[in-house]
Amino acid sequence: MNTILGIAGSLREASYNAALLRAAAELAPPGCRIEVASIRGIPLYDGDVEAAEGVPPAVAELKDRIALADGLLLVTPEYNNSIPGVFKNAIDWLSRPSDDIDRVFGNRPVGIMGATPGMGGTRLSQTAWLPVVRALGMSPWFGETLFLPNARQVFDETGALVDEKVKRRLTAYMNGFAIFVESAARSKSPSASVP
Question: Tens of pLDDT along 86-134?
Fold first, then answer.
């Protein structure tokens, strides 16, 4: 069974992106398990803190979880037409020290999706993530897109996904991403290189 670690890039308790991540976990296909991670507890990046104390425990734990996963799913809000500061800050910490980037992110399959109450559906935020993904050496999946606008209309007051059309789109996204992750895991398997 392949494991995908999903991270929602918001700290808000009633975050639409956290709700989208929970729905993605529920709609994942058989043979694919989604683990949900949080960026809560990660402090603002400070090079002096890193030099004096090293990587904070919350960062070290999340780095290890990413490194053990077969794939990574970034579920991103969009703030001011770009990446949310708290989410980018978390990824910046996760890339420290730089000699650990390959272990955590190198060639890791990554999917990006997002939800917003506005009309843009996080298109600009998802696009803004691409240079970061490239810089960290991840392997992005472009087989499907999921830009979810008008999030207030597709989730109920408990955060459950209630829009059937969006459920179908999310199911298709998760099926495709799971296949991408499975293919990458097979190519890394020692038996894959045996004739």
Answer: 999 999 999 999 999 999 999 999 999 999 999 989 999 999 999 999 9
| pTM, 2 dp | 0.95
CA distances from 26 to 15, 52, 109, 189 (A): 17, 41, 20, 27
Torsion of CA 6, 72, 178, 189, to 10 degrees: -140
68 CB-near residues (< 8 Å, 6+ apart): 3
Question: Could you give all domains of the chain from N- to C-terminal order, each with its CATH number?
Answer: 2-193 (3.40.50.360)
In whole angstroms, what is the distance from residue 156 CA to residue 151 CA? 9
Scan for tokens 């734990």, then name that residue: 61
Q: Which helix (H) or strand (E) holds 177?
A: helix 164-188
C-alpha torsion angle, residues 148, 150, 155, 158 (rounded to 10): 120
